[in-house]
Amino acid sequence: MVLTPRMTFARPTPVYRYAFGSTNPGLMQPAVDAQGQLWVGEMSANRLARLNRATGQVRTWEPPEGKSGLMTTTIDKAGHVWFVEQNANYLGRFDPATQRFQTFPLGSLHQRPMGPQSVRFDARGQLWFTASSGGALGQLDPLTGRIRTWPVPTPISGAPPIPFSLTVTLAGQVWFGYLTGGTVGQLDPASGHVTLFHLGDPQATIFSMTTDRSGRIWFTELLPGRLGMIDPATNRVTLFSVPSIQNAPPALYGVAAAPDGTIWFADRTASALVRYRPDQAAYTFFALPRASAPYGLTVDAAGHVWFTSSGSAGELRFP
């Protein structure tokens, strides 16, 4: 089912921009810790970076045996910063208190490196990840270091299985999006069974996923640029056509659910952050400078929206 919600443009809202050291460090998917500090991988610069919101100061650390593949970051309940090093094929943990790294090598599947992309913790503290190159989902037990993997099927005939995005519900459901084949999957870890949800367009590319406070799954398509939602209670898939800005099709990147139930995502074509209110079926566009190229996105506990772009990070605050 495809719906076309209504669109509005936002009133002026302060956007705070924080420049990073190099011209284009390649800032990826960020995470915000309990102190309100932003952590993000500098893929091109091969560093893990921390932004102090209060001072604007950026500090960086170089990961062990890094190969410019820091893709996604997340933070556990103890404040440790976790990240994937896709090119070096490991999961990493950084302790801000001791400033020490620990790595968890992933090995290979079907004679290919796993190539981790997205990471999420479940309610039990297990770390889930997509093994994009290995065609699998994985789970790391941070206490024991044990790694388990589940292969995923091909999304459609002729399309390689490339699980890319990931989200885990509070109920422990593991959902993921394929980079190929226009398909979303759900894994049952107990049986290893994967249920596939085909979106009707085999060219659709699922880029980012999140879970809202009601347990619904939201995702963005890089192409053809739709916002999607799956209700696990009914397994119903709803696709929303995102309005085109500048007479060009939308290209949707990071997505996050805010504490108030709104959904935020980055539209790179429009150079905007977009808020979607499910209860009103309405988009609100928050324009950024045309050269911003927003990529990663997260919402902190206070409802501030953080995003990364080509050479800087930004924060959208509300009174």
TrEMBL record:
UniProt cross-references to Gene3D superfamilies, sorted A to Z: YVTN repeat-like/Quinoprotein amine dehydrogenase
GO molecular function: lyase activity
Entry-linked InterPro entries: Vgb, WD40/YVTN_repeat-like_dom_sf
Superkingdom per UniProt: Bacteria
Keywords: Lyase
Coiled-coil features, chain-numbered ranges: none
Designated name of the protein: Virginiamycin B lyase
Organism per entry: Dictyobacter formicarum
Biological classification of the source: Bacteria, Bacillati, Chloroflexota, Ktedonobacteria, Ktedonobacterales
Gene name of the encoded protein: vgb
